[in-house]
């Protein structure tokens, strides 16, 4: 990776949403012509810096890339967290569309693609400007339904969802997920919706007709590749299938792997984006490059 920094220009960007909230973002611009540009939509409570090495890799392969912090996360937190009214729905309906617009502004005359990690792939059916997305590459994206999880992880998930989230929301006005290794502190509505959706029929579907009355999940028809891993206790195969079914018109190619196929002990829910994973199994990141190249 030593030479990739010299092949790209990296700079900060502030993106204003239609909620009048500023999102912190980073642009990765290849030195040569950009034919395809990618927005990396993050997992719940994960800062954009987590995807830096992966974004640099994509840019070194010739793709324009934009990473961002959702409202209330990282450098996109502009107020007391207890006063932040961001939600999973606002992330999908307002943050992600604004980022896609910014991607088009930054990289004119390109095709536009979304790489989603967990929630980043789940929320795209809320984007009113989804038509601009030529393809989707999802990693560890699933319904997150607790009912489909295996023991003993199911007990851990139940404790987090049914005890930690409501107790800390009540006590602090937000969920300090960072205290138990679950990303950044979460705005209360983000955590509350996360709990409701995972306890119900899974991400998104639980909210249809309740908190979500307008969506585009039954309209998205761009090609998509979804990657999953057998040691991912959240995005297991059942939960991946649950989420894929919500995108009723999306032609999905699902690939589900054992880490040992790549000589790795674990990949799980997060390690696909690790530079250590790429060093040991470069074919994993190459899958993203090959997919994007095929969509041009």
**H/E element string?**
EEEHEHEHEHEEHEHEHH
Major sheet: 8 strands, mixed
How much of the residues is beta strand, in percent? 15-25%
Give the oligomer, counting copies of the same chain as homo and different chains as hetero.
single chain
Overall 3D form = globular
Global mean pLDDT: 95
Biggest β-sheet: strands ordered side by side in the sheet: 1-2-4-3-5-6-9-10
Determine the number of helices (DSSP H or I, runs of at least 4 residues).
Answer: 8
Radius of gyration: 18 Å
- Unreliable stretches (pLDDT < 50, length at least 5) are none
Number of strands: 10
Can you put this structure into words, describing what you see?
The chain is α/β, with parallel strands linked by helices. Helix content is 31%, strand content 20%. Strand 9, helix 6 and strand 10 form a beta-alpha-beta unit. The radius of gyration is 18 Å and the shape is globular.
Describe the secondary-structure layout:
Elements: E1 8-16, E2 22-30, E3 36-41, H1 52-60, E4 64-68, H2 88-106, E5 111-117, H3 119-122, E6 133-139, H4 153-172, E7 174-175, E8 186-187, H5 188-199, E9 224-229, H6 237-246, E10 252-257, H7 275-280, H8 283-295
Parallel strand pairs: 3-4, 3-5, 5-6, 6-9, 9-10
Antiparallel strand pairs: 1-2, 2-4, 7-8
């Amino acid at each position: 990776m030593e030479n990739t920094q010299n092949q790209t220009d990296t700079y900060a960007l502030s993106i204003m949403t239609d909620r009048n909230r500023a999102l912190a973002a980073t642009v990765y611009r290849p030195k040569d012509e950009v034919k395809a540009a990618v927005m990396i939509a993050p997992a719940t409570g994960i800062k954009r810096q987590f995807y830096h090495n992966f974004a640099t890799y994509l840019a070194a392969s010739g793709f324009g890339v934009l990473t961002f912090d959702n409202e209330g996360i990282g450098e996109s937190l502009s107020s007391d967290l207890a006063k932040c009214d961001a939600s999973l729905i606002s992330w999908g309906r307002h943050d992600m569309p604004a980022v896609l617009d910014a991607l088009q502004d930054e990289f004119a005359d390109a095709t536009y693609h979304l790489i989603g990690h967990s929630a980043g792939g789940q929320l795209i059916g809320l984007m009113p400007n989804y038509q601009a997305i030529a393809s989707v590459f999802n990693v560890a994206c699933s319904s997150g339904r607790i009912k489909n999880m295996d023991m003993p992880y199911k007990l851990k998930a139940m404790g987090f969802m049914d005890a930690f989230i409501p107790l800390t929301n009540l006590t602090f006005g937000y969920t300090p997920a960072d205290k138990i290794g679950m990303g950044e502190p979460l705005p209360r509505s983000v955590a509350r919706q996360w709990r409701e959706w995972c306890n119900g029929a899974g991400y998104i579907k639980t909210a249809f007709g309740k908190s979500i009355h307008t969506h585009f999940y039954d309209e998205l028809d761009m090609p998509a590749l979804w990657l999953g891993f057998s040691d991912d206790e959240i995005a297991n195969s059942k939960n991946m299938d649950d989420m894929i079914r919500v995108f009723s018109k999306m032609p999905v190619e699902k690939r589900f792997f054992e880490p040992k196929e790549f000589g790795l002990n674990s990949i799980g829910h997060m390690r696909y984006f690790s530079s250590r994973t790429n060093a040991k199994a470069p074919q994993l990141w190459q899958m993203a490059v090959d997919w994007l190249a095929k969509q041009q």
